[in-house]
Amino acid sequence: DDDDDIPQLSSHALAALQEFYLEQQQREGMKTSQGFNQYSIGSIEEDWQLSQFWYSDDTASCLAKEAVVAAGKGGRIACISAPSVYQKLKEQDGKDFSVCILEYDRRFSVYGEEFIFYDYNHPLNLPENLLPHSFDIVIADPPYLSEECLQKTAETIKYLTKGKILLCTGAIMEEQAAKHLGVKICKFIPKHSRNLANEFRCYVNYASGLD
């Protein structure tokens, strides 16, 4: 009887191992379940050590729609440290705009050529094909609430944008945001999938639909 039990135990062990590997894949942001949308918010889990906090679905949708309108037909959109907006834009499968994601977290390289490795500490260390003033709108969410982080990210924003800027950061950064980017706070209040301790706001430098 003991011998008969061995295959049964092995199959349980195998199933447990397969479950472990599946969970590991999910943690690494490479979910493979059938019908899964790789662009869904949460498909790549937040890494709090990288100060990552994803927007709620409604907020990401609102910001994505705003970006498409602001960019115009055939517009180019850059998302700096704002992957959930990028994901929502890709969910739309829009043919009237193009988008790229500048992100420090290399897990987002699963998105192929649209992924550009980005470290705000080196704001102008960008690929040669990212030409200056080549994006109709730049959406940015600096990872840290510090003036240094905002100032360096602002260098990248100003290099890439033709003019329009949509910044998402803490309410406490209002003065610095105006100083470094000339943006003003919007009435729209962004929400995150997990509540943050710091009040968060959006800032723009153009007439937007967020007021």
UniProtKB/TrEMBL annotation:
SUPFAM superfamilies: S-adenosyl-L-methionine-dependent methyltransferases. GO terms for cellular component: cytoplasm. One of its GO terms (molecular function) is protein-lysine N-methyltransferase activity. Keywords: Cytoplasm, Methyltransferase, Transferase. The keyword Secreted does not apply. The keyword Cytoplasm applies. Its main location: cytoplasm. It is found in: Cytoplasm. It comes from the Eukaryota. One of its GO terms (biological process) is methylation. It catalyses: L-lysyl-[protein] + 3 S-adenosyl-L-methionine = N(6),N(6),N(6)-trimethyl-L-lysyl-[protein] + 3 S-adenosyl-L-homocysteine + 3 H(+). This is EFMT1 methyltransferase. The gene is Eef1akmt1.
